[in-house]
Design goal:
The protein has one domain: Undecaprenyl pyrophosphate synthetase (3-Layer(aba) Sandwich). It is of the alpha/beta class and 260 residues long. A six-stranded parallel β-sheet has the order 3-4-2-1-5-6, sandwiched between helices. It contains eight helices and six strands. The structure holds farnesyl diphosphate (FPP). The site of farnesyl diphosphate has 17 residues, from helix 2, helix 3 and helix 4.
């Protein structure tokens, strides 16, 4: 196990570990697409005797750091699970805080995100978000539309089953209207009707905070994805953890169901 999973290390040791990991990474075999379930915000706050919303605020800091590292490493796609179709069941105050954090993040950071050539691509049932969140999402998408560096898919009011149901409806409509023959519905047609149409499937899925579930996230797209779990809670997730995940990913043999 990596040392940084075993508690907080002094800053100089963290820098040394980061350098060591960076040196081990093969830049020619980086994951093209990384997906992250940003889990553990509530527990992080509760362990400190703070309201859960403090954990979400701290989670935004982790997101900032990880986006920055993805840009440095020239990762092409990063998909983060920010709000699920099930998260509406949480107390109203928590939902409101999450929406406010999203709006604040997009409004405050959009210029810097654009300066780093990042394209913001919100995915999910965006039409059901509060009007102020829809406006922030629209603004960020428009302002960053031309950017060609990292594509940051922000999953908002996202549920994979809802995404698949919407894809089936759209495909059925094309068949009904005579534009598509049922015999021509193959895997590509389905992929092309998902929010991630045109993007490669994730190579690496990271789930912090010790749970081993996919939680209705990218069910179709994760078919051959490598999973990496860590007990570290998302607000404590730092550059070293992403580097550990990538080093581990690069040590695996991906066979995609075939033989080597
Ligand atoms: C899961 O932790 C996390 C969420 C439901 C929200 C994730 C949101 C952020 C990191 C910040 C806002 C996002 C953006 C894009 C600015 P949890 O609350 O379920 O944690 P727990 O399992 O410990 O309760």
């Amino acid at each position: 196990m990596w040392r940084s999973l075993q508690g907080d290390l002094p800053a100089d040791q963290k820098i040394a570990e980061e350098k060591e990991l960076l040196a081990r990474i093969d830049r020619s075999r980086l994951p093209l697409h990384i997906a992250i379930i940003m889990d553990g915000n509530g527990r992080w706050a509760q362990r400190r005797g703070l309201p859960r919303t403090f954990g979400h605020r701290a989670g935004v800091e982790s997101l900032r750091e990880i986006v920055k590292l993805c840009v440095e490493l020239k990762i092409k796609y990063l998909t983060v699970y920010a709000f699920s179709t099930e998260n509406w069941k949480r107390p109203r105050e928590e939902v409101n805080t999450l929406m406010s954090l999203l709006i604040e993040y997009l409004q405050k950071e959009i210029d810097e995100l654009c300066a780093n050539n990042i394209r913001i691509n919100p995915i999910g049932r965006l039409e059901d978000l509060p009007a102020s969140a829809q406006e922030a999402v629209r603004m960020a998408r428009e302002k960053s539309r031309q950017n060609k560096g990292l594509t940051l898919n922000v999953a908002l009011n996202y549920g994979s089953r809802s995404e698949l149901a919407a894809a089936v409806r759209a495909i059925a409509k094309r068949v009904r209207d005579g534009g598509l023959n049922p015999a021509d519905i193959d895997e590509k047609v389905i992929s092309d009707h998902l929010y991630t149409a045109g993007q490669p499937d994730p190579d690496l899925l990271i789930r912090p905070s010790g749970d081993y579930r996919v939680s209705n996230f990218l069910l179709w797209q994760l078919a051959y994805t490598e999973f990496w779990f860590t007990p570290v809670l998302w607000p404590d997730f730092r550059r070293v953890h992403l580097l550990q995940a990538i080093v581990d990913f690069q040590s695996r043999e991906r066979r995609f169901g075939g033989l080597l």
